[in-house]
Structures are given as structure tokens and as C-alpha cells.
Amino acid sequence: MRRPLIDAAVLLTAALLVGACSPAPSTPADSEQMVSERTAAMPAEANDTDVHFLGMMVPHHQQAIDMAEVLLASTVDDPEVRDLAERIRDGQQRENEQMNAWADEWGIDADMTMHSRHIANGMVSPGVFDSYAALEGEELRTRFLELMHFHHAEVIAMTRDQVDNGGYAPLQEMAAEMVEVQTAEMREMEHMYGGVPTP
């Protein structure tokens, strides 16, 4: 069992992370209806929940991809962790390609841009990400498991909302698969960490 890092530096970083993972303050533009203007290209069954999910999930996935890339580019040689990072990177890249394709087809660029500015649902601030990317060895391995577990856990509620309230069936199906895959990945992280990671 690997011992979690519990020194003062990690505790300070955890405190910074909690604040950094809070949703960005709302602006007047953000408080307006989620779909700024329904486009003619949107499927009839697509609704505001679908548009919001696309806008928020694409940057959320991209940060997970970037976190995985940092781990994979490092000297961390734990085969289980590297395999997990590869699966997260490859799976979320495929999902992002599909979600971006839908957004392009629907012509919802303004909504995608608006939501891309948010740091929420387990995402970390640029400062926390930079601190993570500067780590090496066992510290990087441990921090990857901590941050990625939190990243997954915090977004699952939004993903379930898409399953329950979205209107576009293919996107609902993708969201349901995300919940299943990310829940299983969290259990893997807990096994590798030796308990439930606390960011």
C-alpha cells in the first residue's frame, strides 16, 4: 500500500484546490438562458441541457486529457497508472471529437465559448495545474490520482443530469457511458492510492 503524501506542502495545495474548484462567479451573460438563440441546425429534440452539457464537458474532458498527458510524458513507471492515464486520454479524446462535431453541426459556437470560460465540476485552476505539472516521480503519481479522482467525482452529477434531462438521445447515451466508465476508473484509482484520494 502506498502512503499518501501528508506533508505541509500537499495540505496547502489541497486548500488552494478546494477554492480553485469552485464555479466561476456568474456574469450577467451567464445568467441568461443557456441557448443564446436556437439554431435551425439543432435537432428538434435537443434542449438547453444538451447545449450546456456540451459546453461544459468539452473543456472538462480537455483538462483530464492534459493531466493524463503530463503523467504519460513523465518518468513515472507504474504500469497500472500509466495504463489508466492512457485509457482516460484516449477515451475522452474520442468523446470530445464527437461532442465538438455535434456542436459544429448545431452551430452553437457562442454557447461553447461562453461555457469554456468556467472552472467548475472538479476542474482545477491554471495555478494548481501548473503545480501538478511541475511534480516528478512518486509525488506526480500520487497527485495524478488525487486530482483525477476529484475531477471524475465532481462531474458525475452533471453527467447524470444530462442522462435524466437531456433531449438528444445519442448524447444521453454517451453521458450514461461516461458515468459507468468514470465510476469504474475511480475505483481503480482508489485501489492504486490505497484509499479514497483527498485533493
TrEMBL record:
Q: Which residues form the signal peptide?
A: 1-20
Q: Which Pfam families match?
A: DUF305 (PF03713)
User: Keyword Mitochondrion on this protein?
Assistant: no
Its domain of life reads Bacteria
What is the species of this protein? Corynebacterium nasicanis
InterPro entries in the cross-refs: DUF305_CopM-like (IPR005183), Ferritin-like (IPR012347)
Task: Please state what the protein is called.
Answer: DUF305 domain-containing protein
Which Gene3D superfamilies does the annotation name?
1.20.1260.10
Q: Which UniProt keywords apply?
A: Signal
Instruction: Please state every residue range assigned to the domain named DUF305.
Output: 50-193
In terms of PANTHER family, this protein maps to:
SLL0788 PROTEIN
